[in-house]
Each structure stands twice: as structure tokens, then as C-alpha cells.
Amino acid sequence: MTTRRLTVVQLVPALQSGGAERSTLEVAQALVAAGHFSIVVSGGGRLVERLRAAGSEHVEMPIGEKKLGTLALVSRLRGLLKEFGADIVHARSRLPAWLGWRALRGLPVPRPHFVTTVHGLNSPGWYSGIMARGERVICVSNNVRDHVLRHYPRTDPSRLVLIPRGVDTDEFPFGYQPDDDWRQRFFAEFPQLAGAPLLTLPARGTRLKGHAHAIELLADLQARGVDARLLLLGAREPGREDYVDELEKLAIRFGISRRVVITPPRADVRDIMAISTLVLQMSTSPESFGRTVIEALALCRPVLGYAHGGVDELLTELYPAGRVAMGDRNRLAERAAELMRRAPAIQPLTRYRLADMQAATLALYQELAAEGRAAAD
């Protein structure tokens, strides 16, 4: 297999936040570290500075804007691919994938290779089908792979490659605990969380993340005489005021409002997870992966989650004691109490590490490069 220097162009709608954006930066970092040329095309965002600081180039282009005029970007994108001499074009979202695919079809043979990553369980149809057209289609879980094969049965299974997301074990070291100064500051900020086991649900402020289920869990634990506190970490976001108000009213109705804290997104997620008795994953819709599961387990913290989608896949392999059937409220409270009382031992991760994901992605790029540039469709 060739190890020549590659030029890889990743396409993503924007660089604000999210799993696809985070993976874009992680792969870009690995490309630069391995001596390759890394370019990301996106509509911009707060992560651009971080991308550039790690040695990648960024080209700002609104390839995620869902309007008719965005199609005019195809020729501009085609010119960029020719200018940089791209070897690999890696699309991580549907609209950028369509633009990249059309741009490549206008290039003379041999063309750069086209790779896609299916990060989520997109609604099936012709628009989402572009994500199954890559020469290689990276699936972030077996759950995603099954989704692609079920809804796009003409897809050659040999083109599907399982590369799960990974946690940085340097950032989330096994057994990590924050220092006393951080603890004092945290509990001074949130004194209502002190003095009892802490349950943490780290998730953005959307109904699908199951915040109401977590509040119900706390109420059910209290009814069983189990003392605990609940932190809904990251749910208080701009534009989600009505939703947060709804959650606060629910906590009042259950008589547990003084035991619940709802915060905006924070930079000390690792520290909060590390002091949590339980990390919750309560998504009511199946997740494609479930990164917070492996982050918590990497820190040696127990996880309790609904057994569906990618979360079920991870818990089945790594922490089966944390699995509960979706919507089984009684069993959820029972299992939470059991884990709070005595959680099974957690082993250090030997899979689902960031280095594993990066190495597998770069190996895929090199494999395609060794085949020569792509022939005509």
C-alpha cells in the first residue's frame, strides 16, 4: 500500500458544533500529523480557528445552505479540487455530498476518490441516498450500517466500512478525578447538587434527548427513598427557553425542583462526568452512536441508557449492566438504584478510542490512493 503524501478535502456544512464537525477536526489533525495536506470546506464557524491552528487549511463556502443558489457552488468547488490536486473528497453531510459528487463528475478521468460518512440515521429517500454513493461509505456503528443496507438495498456491502467514533483517552483518562479547587468552585456555583449522588445527562436542549425521562427518574428514585441530584448539562441553550421552562415546571410538579439543575453547555464536561455517580443517556430516538457513553466509560463512570440504536450497541459490548428497555420507567429506576448502590467494574477501553478512528480513516484513504485515481462511473 502506498504511503505517499495525500491531499484530502473534507466537506461539512459548517464548523460550529456536533459529531460530524468534531470528527472532521479529528481526522484533519491526524492527516497533518501524518504529513498529508488537509483542507476543509465549510460555511465557517467557531471551530475554524481550532482547525487552522492544528495545521489544516479552511476554505469558506456556504455548502450547507439549503437554497437553490447553492447549486451554483458546484463549479467553484470543482475548480478548488483541481487547484489543490485532491486525492480524496470526503463528504460528511447530505448537501455537501451532493455538491461534491456533482463537482467530481465534471472532472476528467482519473478523478479524486469520493468517500462519505453516514453519521446519523437520516430519513430514507433520494436526498439521503447520496450518502450511500461513496466509493467507500464509512458507517459509525453497526446500527448505521444496517440502516444503510435496509433503506438502500442496491448498495454493495463491500463498500461499507465500519469505523466507530472514538474518545481521546488523553482527554478522558481512566479513573480521572478533578482537583479540590475545581470541586469547590463547582459546588459553590451549584450548592443544590452537593451532598448526594449526582446523576448527569449531558445533552443539547432538544426533546429527543429525553430530559423529561431523567426528571421522572429522579422523582421515582425519591419515591423509593433514594437520595440523588440531577444535572441536565448543556440543555439551556438560546432558542430553547420554552423547552427549559417546560422541564422546570415538570420538576416542580414532581416536587424535586431543588434537586435539579439545568445548565448551558460548559467546557468542564469531563470534570462533571468524573464526579457523577451515574451518567445518563436517555435519548428517546435511536442514536447513531452515543459518544457520551464511551466518554463516561473511558473515565470509569457507570452509564445508564436506553437499549436502542448505537447506545444499545455500545452498552451491550462495554457495559451491559447499564442497558434498560426504552420506556420501561419502573426498571429504569430499579437499575439506577442498583448501579448507585454497587456498580459493576469498568475496564479501560481497548476499542472506540480516538487513535483507533483516526488510524482506520487514514488507512482507508491510503487504500483508495493505492488503487489509483477513480475511473468514470
Q: What's the CATH first level of the largest domain?
A: Alpha Beta
Shape: elongated
- Biggest beta-sheet profile: 7 strands, parallel
Instruction: Indicate the radius of gyration in whole angstroms.
Output: 22 Å
CATH topology of the largest domain: Rossmann fold
Oligomer description: single chain
- How many β strands by DSSP? 13
The number of domains: 2
- Mean pLDDT across residues: 94
Q: How do the strands of the widest beta sheet line up side by side?
A: 3-2-1-4-5-6-7
Strand content: 5-15%
| Number of separate helices | 13
- Do you know the CATH architecture of the largest domain? 3-Layer(aba) Sandwich
Q: Helical amount among residues, as a percent range?
A: 25-40%
Distance linking N and C termini: 24 Å
Identify the CATH homologous superfamily of the largest domain: Glycogen Phosphorylase B
In terms of structural class, how would the helical and strand content be classed?
A: alpha/beta
Order of helices and strands: EHEHEHEHEEHEHEHEHEHEHEHEHH
Give the low-pLDDT segments: none
Give a nutshell description of this structure.
With 377 residues, this protein is an alpha/beta fold. It is built from 13 helices and 13 strands. The protein folds into 2 domains: 7-166 and 354-370, Rossmann fold, CATH 3.40.50.2000; 180-341, Rossmann fold.
Structure notes:
It is a single chain. The chain is of the alpha/beta class and about 375 residues long. About 40% of the residues lie in helices and about 15% in strands. It is built from 13 helices and 13 strands. A seven-stranded parallel beta sheet has the order 3-2-1-4-5-6-7, with helices on both faces. Strands 10-9-8-11-12-13 form a six-stranded parallel beta sheet, with helices on both faces. Helix 1 (about 20-35) packs across helix 13 (about 355-370), helix 3 crosses helix 4 (about 95-105) and helix 7 crosses helix 12. It is elongated. The mean pLDDT is about 95.
